[in-house]
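Input record, target 12 of the design panel.
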């Protein structure tokens, strides 16, 4: 049986599981929470409490997806379970971030652009990428842009009036719908190329304030108020995102994996989110 071991089973991994389970796959997902374990079981995913013994799951795994956030020492699973390096999986995916490219002042980057991370988040992902590639396993690195999807969209903040359009001239972000993350991962499983790196993003890098404006338009609500970046109240994490501006190319997933994005830009993706969340639509 094709079996996916999902290390750090989260939002993106769950989307992949929803594609694989109907095809007869088994999916094992690690979690630190007994409550989350029950929820995974209800979704058809076999929960594995972590920290715990990975050996039985590794013996079954034909495929491995790693998506846990790294810490100062790198990937926590590789450190805690060095036996992963002896796994017999035919495909391994590591979910990284486009933050590894750092700031390019709105310029384009692709997979051949040298990583120059400007944030701790980006630096730790570069470290973890290298650790996974050094295992000698059939590793594929996926650098994800800003993720949105069901439960992770701008509509709630626009509806409750808390949304603010933070204006920083020249600022652009790339983003990716979680359904497209899942279809890229599945396409890579079907066409493995160990050692490959792929950017996962849509076709339309755009200023973040434009996304909020479109969400308000779709809801028929007033555009959220504009706030200058220098005056905006933001968490350190949110402010770190605004420290980088770049346009990320997705040509490789189309050329090598044959991917046709379901949501090629935020307009399409937001409209789909709203439609799917509206009863009777």
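The sequence produced for target 12 reads:
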């Amino acid at each position: 049986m094709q079996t996916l071991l999902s290390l750090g089973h989260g939002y993106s991994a769950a989307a992949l599981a929803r594609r694989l389970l109907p095809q007869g796959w088994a999916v094992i997902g690690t979690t630190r929470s007994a409550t989350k374990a029950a929820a995974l079981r209800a979704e058809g995913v076999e929960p594995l409490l972590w920290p715990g013994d990975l050996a039985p799951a590794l013996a079954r795994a034909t495929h491995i997806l790693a998506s846990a956030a790294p810490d100062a020492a790198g990937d926590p699973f590789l450190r805690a379970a060095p036996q992963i390096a002896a796994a017999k999986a035919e495909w391994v995916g590591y979910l990284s971030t486009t933050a590894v490219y750092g700031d390019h002042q709105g310029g384009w980057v692709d997979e051949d652009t040298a990583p120059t991370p400007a944030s701790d988040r980006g630096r730790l992902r570069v470290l973890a990428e290298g650790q996974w590639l050094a295992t000698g396993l059939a590793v594929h690195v996926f650098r994800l842009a800003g993720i949105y999807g069901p439960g992770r969209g701008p509509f709630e903040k626009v509806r409750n009036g808390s949304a603010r359009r933070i204006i920083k001239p020249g600022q652009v972000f790339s983003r990716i719908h979680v359904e497209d993350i899942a279809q890229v991962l599945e396409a890579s499983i079907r066409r493995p190329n160990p050692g490959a790196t792929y950017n996962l993003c849509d076709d339309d890098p755009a200023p973040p304030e434009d996304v909020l404006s479109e969400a308000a338009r779709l809801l028929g609500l007033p555009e959220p108020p504009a706030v200058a970046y220098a005056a905006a109240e933001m968490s350190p994490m949110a402010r770190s995102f605004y420290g980088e501006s770049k346009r990320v190319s997705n040509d490789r997933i189309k050329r090598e994996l044959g991917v046709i994005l379901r949501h090629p830009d935020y307009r399409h993706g937001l409209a789909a989110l709203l439609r799917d969340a509206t009863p009777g639509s």
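Residues 173 and 208 are 7 Å apart (CA to CA).
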